[in-house]
Design goal:
Blueprint lengths: L1 H12 L10 H25 L20 H16 L6 H8 L3 H4 L6 H19 L13 H13 L5 H10 L10 H23 L5 H29 L5 H20 L4 H6 L1
Helix pairs in contact: 1-10, 2-10, 2-11, 3-4, 3-6, 6-9, 7-8, 7-11, 8-9, 8-10, 9-10, 10-11
Length: 274
């Protein structure tokens, strides 16, 4: 709870939200309501099984027989970025991660910058391949499972979800190096936000009148992104190892339960429209 709360505050201090600024008071109340539900969910899970707050993450050896060397270098570069940020990428680290010699890397890439640009390009392509996926509201109304499936790739950097992590880490980059594809990645991040707004509109549609759906969906999307980004930021700043599946459960459950309070007629709706 402390890591999430501090992460949200640090993201605000870093001014990561200039392009999607919303009224602070209702947004902060919405975030606080989600944090409250996260605390409840943590207690529920802890009653069922021990919570491992420092999971051991072991590097999985890359299968050189299942893909070409070029793809191994791209995967290794992305892993290094996720672990150490863009400034942590070196040819030595990438080759060690891939288990291949530097001499073979230069058959495919001229330098580190081209490696990173390729990772960014493929992440953007991955987003383009999944953004059109249909996410209709479940018949039983419980969309928390769908949210969890969307959150998990963003936290572990897999599939199109890696765009969020790569975009945030680019904002946290310490050096002045500008990599090819940065502008495209920023546009994908903006697009991802708007697509998520549409998704929340669909999930909240039975609860609200049409004029209110867009407004509340935008606040829920902002809350959603801040919870995700605070988790990613904490990992970089505090070197904290999170269990992505646990975090995805906490965030999706909290958002769903807070949204349910709208349907029950409690004050969450008023947080946005007061």
């Amino acid at each position: 709870m402390g890591q999430l709360t501090v992460g949200i505050r640090e993201c605000e201090v870093l001014n990561l939200y200039e392009l999607r600024r919303l009224d602070a008071e209702p947004l902060n109340k919405l975030i606080a309501a989600c944090l409250d539900e996260i605390a409840v969910r943590i207690v529920e899970i802890a009653a069922e099984r021990p919570l491992d707050t420092h999971p051991v993450v072991k590097d999985q050896p890359f299968e050189t027989t299942s893909e070409g060397s070029r793809e191994l270098f791209v995967r290794a570069t992305k892993d290094v970025i996720m672990e150490l940020g863009y400034d942590g990428v070196t040819i030595v680290r990438v080759c060690e991660k891939a288990g291949l010699p530097a001499s073979s890397l230069y058959w495919f890439f001229k330098d580190k910058d081209e490696l990173i640009a390729t990772v960014i390009e493929e992440a953007c392509q991955g987003w383009a391949s999944i953004r059109q996926n249909s996410h209709l509201r479940p018949v039983d109304g419980d969309w928390s499972v769908l949210a969890r499936r969307h959150i998990l790739p963003a936290l572990d950097g897999s599939a199109g979800g890696g765009v969020l992590a790569l975009g945030l880490l680019l904002l946290l980059q310490r050096s002045d190096q500008v990599y090819a594809g940065r502008k495209e990645l920023e546009l994908v991040m903006q697009d991802g936000f708007e697509v998520t707004v549409l998704w929340f509109r669909e999930m909240l549609s039975p609860m609200l009148e049409e004029p209110k759906q867009e407004d509340l969906a935008r606040y829920f999307t902002e809350c959603f992104f801040r919870l995700l980004e605070s988790s990613l930021l904490s990992k970089q700043v505090e070197d904290q190892l999170w269990d992505p599946a646990l975090l995805a459960d906490l965030i999706s459950t909290a958002l769903y339960r807070v949204a349910g309070k709208v349907q029950d007629g409690t004050t969450v709706l008023d947080l946005v429209h007061q």
